[in-house]
TrEMBL record:
Residues covered by the Alpha-D-phosphohexomutase C-terminal domain: 471-529
Phosphoacetylglucosamine mutase AMG1 domain location: 184-286, 302-440
Binding site for substrate: 376-378, 501-505, 510
Cofactor: Mg(2+)
UniProt cofactor note: Binds 1 Mg(2+) ion per subunit.
Annotated organism of origin: Mycoemilia scoparia
Protein name stated in the entry: Phosphoacetylglucosamine mutase
Family that this chain belongs to: Belongs to the phosphohexose mutase family.
Gene3D superfamilies associated with the record: Alpha-D-Glucose-1,6-Bisphosphate, subunit A, domain 3, Alpha-D-phosphohexomutase, C-terminal domain
SUPFAM superfamilies, sorted: Phosphoglucomutase, C-terminal domain, Phosphoglucomutase, first 3 domains
Residue span(s) of domain Alpha-D-phosphohexomutase alpha/beta/alpha: 54-89, 120-172
GO BP terms: carbohydrate metabolic process; UDP-N-acetylglucosamine biosynthetic process
Length: 547
């Protein structure tokens, strides 16, 4: 009898629907109603991953983040809070697509033998979900998967994605030389609040931060965080906080909406001088914006602006602390605004490395630096400090009181940072600390450099899997001929660039364009989008020729 007899029995309760699944940019994502069998099988895989790590706790997050409410998704978190090792992604795809229960157990057996997994080891899996209506059924499916392999379940309820990543790291680092913190919600808030209050000591309180919480889990969580920080230190006003009403999540609000439409979300009326930011549905992204007092124009400060602000501050602090030999690198993707890259390289004199889209790629590149700052333009990112940096912060001998202060700021900055993954709450506080330290408004921050005009569009096509890319996803190798059409269009607009790639989280193809003027940029973006639509079997309405 198969060692997975119990699995086969449990699996029969979660038949695979007639759909294909892929472990994409951030796990498997599709309509929540199609995902029960996949999430059950992810439970099995997470249990095996835990055994593979000698019983270390593995995380599973049920969320579709910025996607529409009907979607849901699932992703696996490694013991130190990183995204699932890419060598295991194909196991997940294979399991999710296995047509029968017998195929499921066969694939498990193959994984066990290929990875040399000792099934007698224990397994622990920590999991959580966002506020989507399909969440409870998917959580039940996950729990069945864990029970089928007798993995110990640790249910963290409804929390943000970065909180779950944080808990997993805390659990696994508990008895090490470098414990990350207490694996509880209160532990998370206490750590961030203490670091924030230390870093703003002696600085004047600023006007409130207004948060568009995308009607998602970030709304209740940031209010809890706020109560730990205290209103003497920071006032937070939360908008779009309706989490118990259907069809509100990410609808005309949230970081993805604000970035794509370059306008403020509905549900808020941004007044000049007010400081606003938007989270996405699971609070792993953040963007800031304001309305200019003189022109009334909407101004967006995206992930690139956050990366440059963080890199500037870190560079100043390590210089003040006398730690000049720490290597600081900034990691971006092709979506990074050309002006931000130029500012980092020329003004900050820091190196920039490019990776494919997806924090899983940026994170691994950032690990190669003593301090790696990574942000995607969409607002997803964080800062990583390696052991050399941590040791320097903790044990460098300061020559002056000023150096001592800078070292203590760097230690607090590390505590304020969620190093496991991009975290809207942590990133919001990091930005607030830097702005207060510098005495800058959002407008002054925005003046560091001027963004090139840019536009991000989505085109829905019959089959987005026909889109294949190379060159860090900036050049299409398929469909045939489309890349040369794009090249010809780009050549017509001086200083422009444009690229097309299939989304790994939504059933859409993304079109990005950047140019010297808004008019050129929009013309280029819509022309490229029109060509994608025509040459790849667009669905729905063809993109207009111009905005
Ligand atoms: C996820 C990933 C991000 C990525 C985004 C869009 O974000 O974590 O790294 O930038 O998807 O990816 P794509 O363009 O492939 O759809 P989130 O916030 O949805 O988890």
């Amino acid at each position: 009898m198969s060692s997975f007899q119990k699995v086969a029995e449990a699996s029969s309760k979660f038949p695979k629907p007639d759909a294909a699944f892929t472990y994409g940019t951030a796990g498997v994502r599709t309509l929540g109603s199609l995902l029960e069998s996949t999430v059950f099988r992810v439970g099995l895989l997470a249990a095996l991953r835990s055994k593979k790590h000698g019983g270390a706790c593995i995380g599973v997050m049920i969320t579709a983040s910025h996607n529409k409410e009907e979607d849901n998704g699932v992703k696996i978190v490694e013991p130190m809070g990183e995204m699932l090792d890419q060598s295991w992604e194909s196991y997940c795809t294979d399991l999710a697509n296995a047509p029968t229960d017998a195929n499921v157990t066969q694939i498990l057996e193959t994984i066990v033998s290929k990875e040399n997994i000792d099934l007698s080891l224990p397994a622990t899996v920590a999991y959580a979900r966002d506020t989507r209506p399909s969440g409870p059924a998917l959580q039940a499916a996950l729990e069945s998967g864990l029970a089928a392999l007798e993995a110990k379940p640790l249910n963290f309820g409804i929390v943000t994605t970065p909180q779950l990543h944080y808990f997993v790291r805390c659990i696994n680092s508990k008895n090490t030389d470098n414990p990350y913190g207490e694996p509880t919600e209160d532990g998370y808030y206490k750590k961030l609040a203490a670091a924030f209050n230390k870093l703003i000591e002696g600085r004047a309180k600023t006007d409130p931060i207004h948060i568009d919480a995308a009607n998602g889990v970030g709304a209740p969580q940031v209010l809890k965080l706020s109560s730990f920080i205290g209103s003497d230190s920071l006032d937070i006003v939360v908008h779009n906080d309706t989490i118990n009403v259907e069809n509100k999540l990410n609808v005309e609000c949230g970081a993805d909406y604000v970035k794509s439409n370059q306008r403020s979300p509905s549900g808020v009326n941004v007044q000049p001088k007010q400081r606003f930011c938007s989270f996405d549905g699971d609070a792993d992204r953040i963007l800031f914006y304001y309305v200019s007092e003189s022109t009334g124009k909407f101004n967006l400060l995206d992930g690139d602006k956050i990366a440059t602000l963080a890199a500037l501050y870190i560079k100043e602090q390590i210089t003040d602390a006398g730690l000049k030999d720490l290597r600081v690198g900034v990691i971006q993707t092709a979506y990074a605004n050309g002006s931000s890259t130029e500012y980092i390289q020329k003004k900050l004199q820091l190196p920039v490395v490019f990776t494919k889209t997806g924090v899983k790629h940026l994170h691994h590149e950032a690990e190669k630096w003593d301090i790696g700052v990574y942000f995607e333009a969409n607002g997803h990112g964080t800062i990583l400090f390696n052991s050399k940096a941590r040791d320097a912060f903790n044990s460098a001998q300061p020559d002056t009181p000023a150096q001592d202060d800078a070292l203590s700021r760097l230690r607090a900055l590390r505590d304020l940072t969620n190093e496991t993954v991009g975290d809207a709450m942590s990133d919001m506080l990091i930005v607030e600390v830097i702005l207060r330290t510098k005495g800058w408004s959002l407008e002054q921050w925005n003046q560091c450099y001027t963004d090139k005009a840019n536009r991000l569009l989505k085109v829905i096509v019959k089959d987005r899997t026909i889109f294949k890319t190379t060159n860090a996803e900036q050049t299409l190798t398929s469909p045939d001929g489309l890349q040369s059409t794009i090249d010809n269009l780009v050549a017509k607009y001086p200083g422009s660039r444009s690229f097309v790639r299939p989304s790994g989280t939504e059933d859409a193809v993304r079109v990005y364009a950047e140019a010297n003027s808004t008019q050129d940029c929009d013309e280029l973006a819509y022309k490229v989008a029109g060509q994608v639509f025509d040459q790849a079997g667009g669905r729905g309405t063809r993109p207009p020729e111009f905005l």
